[in-house]
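Sequence design from tokenized structure. All designs in this work follow the same two-part layout: the structure record, then the generated sequence. An example of the structure record is given first.
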């Protein structure tokens, strides 16, 4: 290389003065990209790029390596080089004149090195190889977007009219141009693309391919920028032959999952090998059909499994995912759940499945939500990974990834929470990932480093549970994500017990990319239902029978919404013992109901379950409910009542003798009924239940039955809106003493009626129903409009560059305070961490917490010790909507110990602390707050106190 090219710098450490030449960093990044391609990327990702290239895999690998090897060419410009005087001086001595940093001033912002590199690469392709601007832009945009945000049209235009920012005008301009051309020529020759560029200029690179290539370049750059792996040494040591190999050993990325289709195994044998089936258990027809369809669908696509609660949909999804992964060449699996609680519960179940897959070598695992490090099962994997190399990743000044630290723990595990693959931005790249639905919906959100999230999903099978649980706002994001997953040819398995036909059609249309697919789906109310959807072929549906032994006849009854009336009913029904689940639609109704029932039945006979418990208390409450009411549970010997909010609808496999529930949308009513006589009790099905409770009964309340139509209580209407409630009520009208509701046979007809377009309910309801429907349609239109603000655009035609792909986005997508509100149409409930000021004035954790976290002393003017800080982090609590205001935030910030906000205290930095007194009470924003282990948080306003 010329003397000028050798002086161009890429990396600099201000503390030590060490630096790295640009040519060396480009070689490092290209080398890393080659190893990522050969050792880490799953076949599904590689094939998507290869299918577009003339020479297939060979071309695709060269393209990825070349783009990584040229990604920082924009640093070979005066606007970048002038930043460090000690490194700019040798460049000027070599003939590369440049203005000073102060002289350039704010003009430097016009030419960030990513955008500058994009323009330089386009110029070179046009000047040296005859490429047209549109053809070159689809490739060069990868360089422009390698810091997470592809440039927009206005940014490109602003730089186009300022060419002096790329090469200093005057005598040195030719030297600048020669040096830039020399480096790009060297990259083309070194990475073996010089003879391929004539063929590539005719390839209309698709947007999915552009996204994946951008992500590969980002990962390559992050690894190559790690000074622990690639030291900043500009002398002869920079050419050590083992530089790349040593770095690769240091980061030690696990290889992707490489499953094979278990062709010879029968379904029974496959399930016996993969899951802990009870003795004598048989594979259900839904599970067998899911395996069959995964094997036989024309191409790995989307499989929608609609089946009753408790039918084994999760195991069906895992078995189908293994087959689809093998067929597609996917290298991992991501499971999306509605909430953190359901994600935590699912993590343990999936861990058993992973361990039975017969994998070779370590596999990376990630629990993708903000409280993952508090999950004991996940924490054990983090501990087991202690012997792995812990890497730092520099994000050009972003200090939000892992930093090197001493870790003397040792251990090995078949599954590890790999240090680099559990960072905030890299965690989704792990092989096996469990997270909330937010993590999936973030893939449809215009946000920084979105390409990384797409790479993570493009290489996996995606399983989405409880599909029916997402409203119009979230569905806008879900459908856009499905469109991109379909374009990536990602296998998807969707699970639901209650899916309206219109939602099924919308999901199928989004994934297939064919709006007409809705007309190809049969209009058939049979249930269970499995639907297979691909990008090229008509949908395939099948109707396996539900397990006969799971049929339950439910008598639907109604009572007035008076607590004395409820107490009288339960006193009568529990005369011979038994268990009752009372589901309320708001936490306040839960607490009022529980307090009233305790006056009649005693404190020991009533348990509450809702979302206003600190994390550890809620986990302990869930464990207690499973111990009492789970499949192998042993209920209390005396009558017992559980009063719960919507937390009882999903994730908990619990079973009760009698159900009392507030009116809710029909799908949620059916979910609640799924907790009624869920498991056989006694020798002959339900003979083990009290005699008067051996017939399943669902008692509906929360309604003023005297009006026409009946009027739901205000809290229910605020949560669900009037129209879905009235449609649900209309669908349930035929069922009562004379006609039983049969599960699962009536699930689909009820859901289709309640969510269909046909009029419903008596004629006397027509006016009220029409008014409610109009308001509901307006609400849903508002949700669609609001969701569209930051929703990612459609997949555009091949050859269209990713210019402005995430323009006007939200910055980083995360699950921090307010993060989930980006993809959910909900009020941003504040999350606080709860501690107690004891009688002696010191701070401590709540005294009763389990896991040894209770009663730990907390220093007020210093960061707490690691264990105590973790105990505080495990005491998170969400405040109700009326306490989620800026005034409350300011009040909490004032009471939060400032010493806990330092970056060194990573468990607590940025968190709000709620300090309770010795009696677990406090005042906040004019409200009185009381917390106890049995009831969680109670909030009382001044008006309510009087």
């Amino acid at each position: 290389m010329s003397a000028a090219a050798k002086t161009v710098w890429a990396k600099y450490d201000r503390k030590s003065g060490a630096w790295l030449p640009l040519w060396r960093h480009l070689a490092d990044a290209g080398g890393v990209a080659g190893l990522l391609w050969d050792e880490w990327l799953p076949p599904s990702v590689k094939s998507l790029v290869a299918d577009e290239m003339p020479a297939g895999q060979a071309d695709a690998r060269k393209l990825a390596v070349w783009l990584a090897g040229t990604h920082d060419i924009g640093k070979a410009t005066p606007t970048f080089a002038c930043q460090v005087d000690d490194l700019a001086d040798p460049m000027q001595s070599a003939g590369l004149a440049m203005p000073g940093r102060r002289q350039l001033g704010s003009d430097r912002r016009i030419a960030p090195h990513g955008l500058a590199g994009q323009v330089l690469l386009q110029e070179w392709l046009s000047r040296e190889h005859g490429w047209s601007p549109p053809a070159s832009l689809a490739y060069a945009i990868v360089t422009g977007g390698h810091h997470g945000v592809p440039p927009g049209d206005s940014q490109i235009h602003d730089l186009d009219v300022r060419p002096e920012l790329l090469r200093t005008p005057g005598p040195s301009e030719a030297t600048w141009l020669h040096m830039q051309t020399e480096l790009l020529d060297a990259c083309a020759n070194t990475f073996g693309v010089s003879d391929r560029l004539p063929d590539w200029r005719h390839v209309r690179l698709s947007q999915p391919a552009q996204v994946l290539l951008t992500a590969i370049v980002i990962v390559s750059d992050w690894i190559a920028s790690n000074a622990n792996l690639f030291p900043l040494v500009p002398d002869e040591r920079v050419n050590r032959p083992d530089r790349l190999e040593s770095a690769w050993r240091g980061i030690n990325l696990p290889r992707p999952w490489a499953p094979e289709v278990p062709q010879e195994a029968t379904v029974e044998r496959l399930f016996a090998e993969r899951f802990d089936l009870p003795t004598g258990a048989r594979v259900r027809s839904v599970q067998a059909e899911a395996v069959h369809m995964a094997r036989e669908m024309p191409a790995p696509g989307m499989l929608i499994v609609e089946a009753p609660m408790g039918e084994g949909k999760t195991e069906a999804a895992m078995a189908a995912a293994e087959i689809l992964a093998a067929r597609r060449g996917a290298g991992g699996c991501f499971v999306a759940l509605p909430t953190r609680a359901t994600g935590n519960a699912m993590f343990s179940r999936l861990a058993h499945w992973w361990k039975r897959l017969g994998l070779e070598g370590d596999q990376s695992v990630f629990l993708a939500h903000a409280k993952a490090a508090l999950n004991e099962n996940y924490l054990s994997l983090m501990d087991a990974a202690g012997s792995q190399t812990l890497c730092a990743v520099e994000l050009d000044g972003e200090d939000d990834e892992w930093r090197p630290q001493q870790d003397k723990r040792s251990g090995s595990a078949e599954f590890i929470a790999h240090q680099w693959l559990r960072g905030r931005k890299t965690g989704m790249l792990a092989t096996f990932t469990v997270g909330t639905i937010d993590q999936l919906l973030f893939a449809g959100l215009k946000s920084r480093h979105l390409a990384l999230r797409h790479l993570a999903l493009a290489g996996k099978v995606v399983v989405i549970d409880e599909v029916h649980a997402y409203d119009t706002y979230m569905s806008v994001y879900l459908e856009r994500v499905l469109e991109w997953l379909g374009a990536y040819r990602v296998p998807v398995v969707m699970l639901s017990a209650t899916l309206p036909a219109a939602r099924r059609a919308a999901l199928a249309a989004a994934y297939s990319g064919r709006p007409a697919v809705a007309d190809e789906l049969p209009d058939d109310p049979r249930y269970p239902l499995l639907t297979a959807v691909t990008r090229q072929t008509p949908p395939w549906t099948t109707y396996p029978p539900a397990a006969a032994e799971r049929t339950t006849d439910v008598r639907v009854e109604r009572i007035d919404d008076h607590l004395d009336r409820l107490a009288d009913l339960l006193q009568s029904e529990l005369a011979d013992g038994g268990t009752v689940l009372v589901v309320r639609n708001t936490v306040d109704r839960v607490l009022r109901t529980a307090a009233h029932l305790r006056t009649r039945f005693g404190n020991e006979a009533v348990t509450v379950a809702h979302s206003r418990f600190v994390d550890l208390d809620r986990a302990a409450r869930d464990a207690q409910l499973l111990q009492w009411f789970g499949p192998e549970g042993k209920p209390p010997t005396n009558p017992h009542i559980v009063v719960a909010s919507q937390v009882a609808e999903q994730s908990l496999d619990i079973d009760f003798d009698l159900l009392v529930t507030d009116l809710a949308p029909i799908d949620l009513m059916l979910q609640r009924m799924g907790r009624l006589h869920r498991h056989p009790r006694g020798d002959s099905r339900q003979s083990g239940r009290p005699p008067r409770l051996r017939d399943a009964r669902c008692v509906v309340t929360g309604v003023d039955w005297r009006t026409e139509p009946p009027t739901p209580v205000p809290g229910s209407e605020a949560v669900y809106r009037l129209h879905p409630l009235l449609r649900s009520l209309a669908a349930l009208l035929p069922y009562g003493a004379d006609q039983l509701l049969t599960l699962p046979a009536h699930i689909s007809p009820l859901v289709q009626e309640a969510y269909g377009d046909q009029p419903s309910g008596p004629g006397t309801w027509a006016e009220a129903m029409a008014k409610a429907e109009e308001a509901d349609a307006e609400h849903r239109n508002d949700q669609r409009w609001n969701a569209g603000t930051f929703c990612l655009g459609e997949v555009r035609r091949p050859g269209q560059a990713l210019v402005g792909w995430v323009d006007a986005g939200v910055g980083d997508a995360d699950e921090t305070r307010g993060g989930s509100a980006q993809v959910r149409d909900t009020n941003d409930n504040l999350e606080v961490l709860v501690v107690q000021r004891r009688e002696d004035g010191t701070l401590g954790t709540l005294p009763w917490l389990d896991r040894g976290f209770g009663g730990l002393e907390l220093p007020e003017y210093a960061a707490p010790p690691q264990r105590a800080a973790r105990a505080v982090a495990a005491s998170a609590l969400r405040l109700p909507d009326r306490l989620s205001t800026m005034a409350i935030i300011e009040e909490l910030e004032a009471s939060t110990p400032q010493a806990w906000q330092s970056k060194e205290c990573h468990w607590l930095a940025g968190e709000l602390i709620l300090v309770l007194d010795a009696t677990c009470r406090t005042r906040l924003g004019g409200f009185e707050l009381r917390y106890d282990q049995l009831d969680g948080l109670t909030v009382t306003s001044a008006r309510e106190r009087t």
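The longest strand covers residues 552-558. We note this feature because it recurs in several other targets discussed in the main text.
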